């Protein structure tokens, strides 16, 4: 049965790529949503598979080769009363990072712009490392800065919720991993009144200084660095450390086990409150990734979903067994972030 379901899913993905892979088909979708259903498409969101096994679970090898760098329509999402379309490519992070693929990124941006215009959406947004890859290669998009800021605000809401849940003071030491990164730099700009230290890859001296000063006391580590990096830092942590992860994909079971062995606790930001069809996979199930969130005015709260992770099972415990936090109040850090840009 699992094999049959696997083939059905892959076949459906292939048919969808051909049926909805033209501007004309997308224009029909946009017209239908806007004029018949009275629910216009606001945003188009592009994601990519976190790992090779994700790509293989969704598409045949020939399909992956045929539609490499070509966004295909894979789903629909809703946040509040607004809707967005989900597109996907089969390319992995190594492909996106490769310098020789810079021209491919230009083509990818152009194709997503064509998809946005075809359905009549007002914005296009991107998952994972795609925004930073675009910026690094000088590829402009007027929506990247807005997406970056919305993601940073969501992280701050999640941070305040975790701090409040553990009854920590507002002055609790916070270590931001990946401080020079695309999202992390925006987070740091909005946390000027916090007790924040940031480090980037290879800054071992700064890490050791933070550890020496705070070991044995509560501390929060916000993971905004690359996938798999938590394993490199876990050996320095101690009981009382709380890790808040926003990196895509979610930490592996090995990373979570390494943290738990040191007595640390790990939370994962699922995303913002919303629905998706089909649901986003694994630790993102039940919400909308922060990078896909629709515009929210500076004075409005963001409904952020956070779950506690465990290495006891592959990747994470089922969300039905985890406490899911809906941060709908106006936490202090988020208030300061809003006032800083308002």
List keywords for this structure.
5-stranded mixed beta sheet; Rossmann fold; 2 domains; 342 residues; 7-stranded mixed beta sheet; alpha/beta; 13 helices
User: What oligomeric state do the depicted chains represent?
Assistant: single chain
Radius of gyration: 20 Å
Average pLDDT across residues?
Answer: 85
Sequence of secondary-structure elements: HHEHHEEHHEHHEHEHEHEHEEEEH
Task: Give the helix/strand class.
Answer: alpha/beta
Shape verdict: globular
Low-confidence stretches: 313-322, 324-342
Task: Quickly count the domains.
Answer: 2
Largest sheet: 7 strands, mixed
Question: How is this structure best described in words?
Answer:
With 342 residues, this protein is α/β, with parallel strands linked by helices. The protein has 2 domains: 2-142, no CATH class; 147-341, Rossmann fold, CATH 3.40.50. It has 13 helices and 12 strands. It has helices at residues 2-19, 23-36, 52-58, 61-66, 93-97, 102-119, 130-136, 144-165, 182-189, 204-214, 230-233, 253-261, 332-341, and strands spanning 41-47, 72-79, 82-88, 123-126, 174-177, 196-199, 219-223, 241-245, 265-272, 275-277, 304-308, 325-327. It has a 7-stranded mixed sheet. A 5-stranded mixed sheet has the order 4-1-3-2-10. Strand 8, helix 12 (253-261) and strand 9 form a beta-alpha-beta unit. Helix 8 crosses helix 9 (182-189). The protein is globular and about 60 Å long. The protein starts with a helix and ends with a helix. Mean pLDDT is 85; it is low at 313-322 and 324-342.
Task: Give a topology summary.
Blueprint: H1 2-19, H2 23-36, E1 41-47, H3 52-58, H4 61-66, E2 72-79, E3 82-88, H5 93-97, H6 102-119, E4 123-126, H7 130-136, H8 144-165, E5 174-177, H9 182-189, E6 196-199, H10 204-214, E7 219-223, H11 230-233, E8 241-245, H12 253-261, E9 265-272, E10 275-277, E11 304-308, E12 325-327, H13 332-341
Parallel strand pairs: 1-3, 1-4, 5-6, 5-7, 7-8, 8-9
Antiparallel strand pairs: 2-3, 2-10, 9-11, 11-12
Helix pairs in contact: 2-6, 8-9, 8-13
